[in-house]
Amino acid sequence: xxxxxxxxxxxxxxxxxxxxxxxxxxxxxxxxxxxxxxxxxxxxxxxxxxxxxxxxxxxxxxxxxxxxxxxxxxxxxxxxxxxxxxxxxxxxxxxxxxxxxxxxxxxxxxxxxxxxxxxxxxxxxxxxxxxxxxxxxxxxxxxxxxxxxxxxxxxxxxxxxxxxxxxxxxxxxxxxxxxxxxxxxxxxxxxxxxxxxxxxxxxxxxxxxxxxxxxxxxxxxxxxxxxxxxxxxxxxxxxxxxxxxxxxxxxxxxxxxxxxxxxxxxxxxxxxxxxxxxxxxxxxxxxxxxxxxxxxxxxxxxx
Length: 303
Fold this sequence. Notes:
Layout (H helix, E strand, L loop, with lengths): L1 E4 L2 E8 L7 E6 L11 H9 L2 E6 L18 H9 L10 H15 L4 E6 L1 H12 L4 E7 L13 H8 L7 H14 L8 H14 L4 H12 L4 H4 L7 E6 L7 H10 L4 E5 L12 H21 L1
C-alpha cells in the first residue's frame, strides 16, 4: 500500500500479529535497501509475539518516491563539510526521513510503536526517538552508528569493493558488483552467490538499482554528525545490536551508540558482519532474535 506523507509516497507493508495483538513494531531499512530485504524469519517471529509488523521503503528506495529532481549530491564536499562540523546543503536529511516514518504511523493510526532500524535505518530510528519520544515504545538500533566523527571506518577491503561500482547501467555488471560487495561485508556465514543473485534479481524486478538515489541517502547519513550529541536525550528503552565481525560499520560504532543513550544495552552478535540483509544466515537471525524478543517483551511489559 502507498501512503502519502511529507509530499511524497511511501510504500508500506503490514503483517498482522499472530494471536492476540499486543502492539506494533516499525521496521526501517538501511541504505538503498527495500522492505522485502527484512528476513522473513524475523518478521514472522515479531508477528508471533503479537506485534503488527510495519515495514516501509524509505524515500529514494524501492517503490517509494524517488526524488530524481534533487539531482546527485557532491559527496566529496558533503563528507569534507561534515568532518569540519559544517552544515552542507543536502537533498534531504535523516530527520526528514524520520518524519516520513512518523507520517506512516500517523496514516495508519498508530500512536506508539516499537521502532527498529538496520544500518542507516538504525540512524533514522534514533532520529524518530529524538523527534517524537512519546511515540516510541522502544528503540532497537541494529548495525548502526551514533554519527560521531571518526567512527565510521570501514575496512580497506570493503572500501575497495564499494569503490568498484560500475559506471554503466548494465544489469549483469550491477549484479556482479552487488554480489561482490555483499559478500565482502558478510561475517563468518557469508551467503552463497546463488542466494545473493536470487534476491538481487528479485529486488531489481521490484525496483531497479538507483545509484544516485542511494547517494542522496548516503549524503543524509554523512551530514548527521550532530546526532551523536543529542542521543543522551533518548529515554525509550534501547537495545543496540551489532556484529563483532562487521567490516562496514565497525563494532566501535555500536559500542559508542550504546554508551551515549542512557540505559541502553549492547548485544554483540558473534560471527555477524553487516549481513542481516538482504540475505541473512538462519543462525545469525536466531542469535539476533535471542536478544531482540526478550527485550521487546520487557519493554512492552514496562509500557
